[in-house]
Design goal:
about 220 residues; alpha+beta; Glutaredoxin; Antioxidant, Horf6, Chain A, domain 2; 2 domains; five-stranded mixed β-sheet; four-stranded antiparallel β-sheet; 11 strands
């Protein structure tokens, strides 16, 4: 069944490069980003994991854990991590899930199965290549309530923009705290919009300095702390 924003993120138990976890327990009372990769030892994934390792302090400041997933074993992951550090200049500093049995990718609808799989579903857990997997580069942003707050999906050929994932997280956390929305191309520190569900009466309490209103339905305020 396809997942949607607002659904509870499916819980699971898994082996990772940092030991066994239960996903919801591992998230705890913070935020989490789960992102998938087609295969270990593939070029685009190598650049992505290295970049995310460099960004991890920014996610830490936002009380957000990172966890990656690839349809390979923990042993394969650990060998791959050496290549990532060597070529990207950052040691991976978050866990990678062993999804070699494909259960978690199926749970999160991360796989685009090939014709071979559809014809031979009983062996879909065989050793697979990146071409076989056709794994979508998925990103799930999950809140403290374990609900999915945002989802992104990229094709295999395109590396993700993880600066955008960070910007998305900032927007969602700001909305959760202050009932505001962020306009097109918003960046941290720029003006925001009072959410349409907030009445003018409530807005006056939350934003006593008032707001700019080029139209009655547009209420612009400086970004709250």
């Amino acid at each position: 069944m396809a997942l949607h924003i607002g659904d509870e993120a499916p819980d699971f138990a898994a082996k990772t490069t940092e030991g066994e976890i239960n996903f919801h327990d591992w998230i705890g009372d913070g935020w989490a980003i789960l992102f998938s990769h087609p295969k270990d030892f593939t070029p685009v994934c190598t650049t992505e994991l290295g970049y995310m390792a460099g960004l991890k302090p920014e996610f830490d400041r936002r009380n957000t854990k990172l966890i990656g997933l690839s349809v390979d074993s923990v042993d394969d992951h650990r060998e791959w991590l050496k290549d990532i550090q060597e070529t990207q200049g950052h040691a991976v500093n978050f866990p990678l899930i062993d999804a070699s049995n494909l259960e978690i990718p199926k749970l999160y609808d991360m796989l685009h199965f090939t014709l071979f799989d559809m014809l031979h579903p009983e062996i879909s857990g065989r050793a697979r290549t990146a071409a076989d997997n056709q794994t979508v580069r998925s990103v799930f942003l999950i809140g403290p309530d374990k609900k999915i707050k945002a989802m992104l999906a990229y094709p295999m050929s395109t590396g993700r923009n993880f600066d955008e994932v960070l910007r998305l997280l900032d927007s969602i956390q700001l909305a959760a705290k202050h009932q505001v929305s962020t306009p097109v191309n918003w960046k941290q520190g720029e003006d925001v919009i009072i959410g349409p569900a907030v009445s003018d009466e409530t807005a006056k309490e939350k934003f006593p300095d008032g707001w700019e209103s080029p139209k009655p339905y547009i209420r612009i305020v400086p970004q709250p702390d």
